[in-house]
Write a structure and sequence with these properties.
single chain; mainly alpha
Length: 106
Amino acid sequence: MEKKLAEKLHDLVVSEDGLLVTLRCKNYFDDKKYIEIKNILKKLVPLWKANNCVSISGLLSVVNLIEYIAGGNSYISDEDSIKLEDACIEIMSILGDLYENLSYLN
């Protein structure tokens, strides 16, 4: 299940019709794709947490997504810029559950 979800996440983020291409080339925030991405992350994070492991495709998808949305895009509308900021905060919040596994470092 985790592998299929991670692959779907990767496709939604970085494929030719993924969210990042939509943002970079078409200069708009695709709400539908973002909601799918968010919902998949909400399923993946508990799996990653339980396994104490993140898949490579999942990790790369998240890194690419956060790197782009945190940097913003000066070519999109103000409304979509606000959506990008909100998405970054929301994704970081979802990923925050993974920090609990780092308690052994304290």
